[in-house]
């Protein structure tokens, strides 16, 4: 098969523009990371804090999480912990009930007919409706925390801050698959951090976020996306940034890191990423949706350039190689910066294999997450 020279130039131009757009995106992240600094504040907020932990079928993790929560070195009269059971089918509720030792911890169960399609978001919203705190912190029941986690997360708050995104890190068991996940997940967290640092809040992780309750109410909470099983984090953050005068911050402090285990199986990993990808088309900012679509097209274009170079015209191979090298260089700089600022035990020797695996998985997860169904906590979620 031959391609007309004018068509060839046009195709190369499209690939070039996609590359430049992606490099600009990476440069924005890197610039934002450079702007992030630890909070200069040394006084915790006077407001009451409510930590909300939704759970479903977490009997293997719930005791470790509880012990970690109970170890917090924060004035006990200034915070409460609300575990919210989202119809667990195992012994999570029983195990938790029998092992709580602190008076500021309680358990709620989501009512049967309460926002039945919202899943995790309904548990969080039910917790917020029953919370005493002026600042809401959400995390997950499979997470563990340093004993000063809450203290350092709260230091990011000041009177003009409405939302704080905190760092989350995967725990690796040392095998290649979990090391890949740890590195790849660190890249996602650093992407969110850098975009917040550059004043373009886009993504965050609900395992470690905090926001003012009155701000949550003012932007309508989750009411415009209760039909989605995901989005209790970044969709809310984007609304706070867009619809209020409050600031969105990222807590760039190692002592505020929340840790959770990497996925044990490839199937669980794919289902998790499909769930995360499922909300992208529902961002209120349609220019942001377009930018994300262009980034996805860049990834798809990498594979297409390789195929065209091997089957149609060798001229596609050089831009393919250059695109890969530039992508690798910028993303390595982001991870290296993240290692210096946040994730000190990040193992960069797995960088190159992780980069190569990332390309096909992003193409697959983005496609099926947007248009297909997925499983989460033994539930089949339909698009």
List the helices and strands and how they pair.
Layout: H1 5-35, E1 49-55, H2 62-70, E2 79-85, H3 92-97, E3 105-109, H4 120-129, E4 135-138, E5 143-145, H5 149-154, E6 161-165, E7 168-171, H6 176-197, E8 209-212, H7 213-218, H8 234-243, E9 247-250, E10 258-261, H9 266-277, H10 286-311, H11 317-341, H12 351-371, E11 374-376, E12 379-381
Parallel strand pairs: 1-2, 1-4, 2-3, 6-9, 7-10
Antiparallel strand pairs: 4-8, 5-10, 6-8, 11-12
Label this structure with key terms.
12 helices, alpha/beta, seven-stranded mixed β-sheet, 12 strands, 383 residues, Spore Coat Polysaccharide Biosynthesis Protein SpsA, Chain A, three-stranded mixed β-sheet, single chain
Explain what the structure shows.
The protein is an alpha/beta fold and 383 residues long. It folds into 2 domains: 5-33 and 287-381; 40-266, Spore Coat Polysaccharide Biosynthesis Protein SpsA, Chain A, CATH 3.90.550.10. The chain contains 12 helices and 12 strands. It has helices at residues 5-35, 62-70, 92-97, 120-129, 149-154, 176-197, 213-218, 234-243, 266-277, 286-311, 317-341, 351-371, and strands spanning 49-55, 79-85, 105-109, 135-138, 143-145, 161-165, 168-171, 209-212, 247-250, 258-261, 374-376, 379-381. The strands form 3 sheets. The chain has a 7-stranded mixed β-sheet. Helix 1 packs across helix 6, helix 1 (5-35) crosses helix 10 (286-311) and helix 6 (176-197) crosses helix 11 (317-341). The longest helix has 31 residues, at 5-35. It is elongated and about 75 Å long. 42% of the residues are buried.
């Amino acid at each position: 098969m031959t391609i007309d020279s004018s068509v060839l130039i046009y195709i190369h131009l499209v690939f070039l523009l996609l590359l430049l757009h992606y490099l600009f995106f990476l440069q924005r992240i890197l610039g934002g990371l450079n702007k992030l600094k630890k909070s200069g504040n040394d006084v915790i907020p006077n407001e009451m804090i409510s930590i909300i932990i939704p759970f479903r079928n977490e009997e293997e993790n719930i005791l470790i999480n509880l012990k970690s929560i109970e170890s917090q070195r924060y004035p006990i009269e200034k915070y409460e912990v609300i575990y919210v059971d989202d119809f667990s089918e195992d012994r999570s509720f029983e195990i938790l009930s029998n092992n709580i030792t602190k008076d500021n911890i309680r358990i709620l169960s989501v009512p049967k007919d309460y926002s039945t399609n919202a899943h995790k978001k309904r548990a969080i919203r039910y917790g917020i409706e029953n919370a005493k705190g002026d600042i809401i912190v959400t995390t997950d029941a499979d997470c563990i925390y340093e004993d000063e986690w809450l203290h350092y997360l709260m230091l990011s708050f000041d009177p003009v801050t409405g939302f704080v995104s905190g760092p989350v890190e995967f725990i690796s068991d040392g095998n290649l698959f979990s090391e890949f996940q740890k590195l790849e997940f660190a890249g996602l967290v650093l992407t969110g951090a850098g975009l917040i640092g550059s004043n373009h809040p886009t993504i965050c992780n609900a395992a470690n976020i905090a926001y003012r309750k009155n701000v949550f109410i003012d932007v309508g909470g989750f009411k415009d996306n209760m039909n989605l099983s995901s989005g209790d984090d970044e969709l809310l953050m984007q609304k706070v940034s867009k619809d209020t005068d409050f600031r969105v911050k990222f807590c760039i402090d190692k002592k505020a890191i929340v840790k959770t285990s990497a996925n044990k199986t490839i199937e669980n990993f794919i289902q998790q990423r499909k769930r995360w990808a499922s909300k992208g088309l529902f961002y209120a900012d349609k220019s942001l949706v377009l930018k994300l679509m262009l980034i996805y097209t860049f990834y798809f274009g990498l594979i297409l350039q390789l195929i065209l170079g091997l089957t149609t015209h060798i001229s596609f191979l050089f831009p393919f190689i250059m695109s890969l090298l530039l992508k690798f260089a910028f993303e390595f700089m982001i991870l290296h910066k993240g290692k210096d600022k946040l994730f000190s035990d990040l193992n960069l020797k797995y960088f190159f294999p992780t980069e190569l695996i990332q390309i096909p998985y992003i193409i697959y997860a983005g496609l099926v997450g947007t248009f297909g169904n997925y499983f989460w906590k033994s539930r089949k979620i339909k698009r």
